[in-house]
Amino acid sequence: MKVRILVLLLFLSASAFAQEKASVSNLRKVVEVLAADSLRGRAYKSKELLVAQRYISEQFKQVGLKPIGSSFIQSVEWHDQYGGELKISNIVGVIEGNDPVLKNEYIVVGAHYDHVGYSADKDTVIYNGADDNASGVSGIIELSRIILASGAKPDRSILIVAFDAEEAGLVGSRKFVENSPVPLKSIKAMLSIDMIGHANLIKGLEIAGVGSLKDLDIPQSLFTATDSLRVKLRSNPSFRINHTDTQSFFKKGISNLYVNTGLKANYHKPTDDANTLDYTGMAFAVDNITSLVLYLAKQPTLHYTNPIPRLAVGVAASFGTNHFKMMNGPIDNKAMLTYSAGISVLYKAWKKASVNADILFKNKTSRTELGQVNMPSLYIPVHLVLINPYNTARFFAGVGPYYSYSFGRYVKGDKLKLSNRERDDYGLDIMMGCVVMKNQIAFHSTYGLKRLMDNQPLMHYRSFEISFTRYLRY
């Protein structure tokens, strides 16, 4: 009889754990409180944000989280060049790990709780920030409830953090890593839950940056799916890595994942209200985030690696104007349209610089006293790229030499003889631009240093172009 009772109890406890799911009503309740008009958009430094702090702290306590120290609220002073001496207040709770060794390591699950406030020009317009990011805060609270209510015993400890001042420049997460309540090296992974209220719009949940977990395979079978929703894993960080709290951990060499349902709705608009969110989709998101957090918490080892490969290869194309500049004489040659296409290779050679080399087919053109001249050429520029464009959404500048080999010379459509010495050209190529994930755009200015044609007035090659590169491997 005792054996039967024991088996029944084990079955019921296992069933309870398996059946514990995110509650739509719980998620909605928290969002409706944080995104209410009465909180006036939860702007940093506002009295309404203090109300949100107290509410979130109370929710942490209700679901069973423990504070580190005497309070959930951990405040840090910081100096703002415009506002002087200020204070940020992160809200931190912990789920203690069960393994005698791994419990001293941590997974951080964070969501910022501030937003952009309101404007009061003629009429008061409140930016309630339901998706951004009341949804994320609601998600980490519900995730905590699920883990603690289910009786799950993670090997690693889990820090649940509501970050302050994200909208002020990721200040809360930056100050967290600078003043971590646990040894920074003991934090093995960080998940930023930032905008999870519109799974219906992207048909699921995106988790970007899983490639920062070195040699760890996250099986798709870990996640649930429906007919219309699924979890999408991205190895590389999102282009928003510089705009969400993962950045602070990325800079410290900590594996970081950005969890979201996209920017397709009411991002930073006054229409981002609680009644616009997809709460069933939020429950889907929270259930799958919980599975991932528990999966990470039980791994024997977790190590960081930069998910952006050192070598990227892509296709490139450019167009612009070029001409054969007269270096002496009263009249210059006329500029004409030029174009090029080929392959581009980007190699991350140093932390703050990369080497970019292109192999392009290019048509050099100009209108000279002989008429329209066309010189189809192989064009190979090599740049040292500063302010490393290998991180996402970064501006960069590059400079380096180019070499060009012309296959022929055509004047008014007639092919003219081209000596071997005239086929070669070299000079300097300067570029400035921006790279966003797999896409790069740059402006080029080219200065030839070699005489283009024998037995003609002294001419050097010049061009001004815009290039587009799409990296196939990035």
From TrEMBL:
Keywords: Signal. InterPro entries: M28_fam (IPR045175), Peptidase_M28 (IPR007484). Residues 1-18 form the signal peptide. GO terms for molecular function: metalloexopeptidase activity. Pfam families: Peptidase_M28. GO terms for biological process: proteolysis. The keyword Nucleotide-binding does not apply. The keyword Secreted does not apply. This is Peptidase M28-like protein. The lineage of its organism: Bacteria, Pseudomonadati, Bacteroidota, Bacteroidia, Bacteroidales.
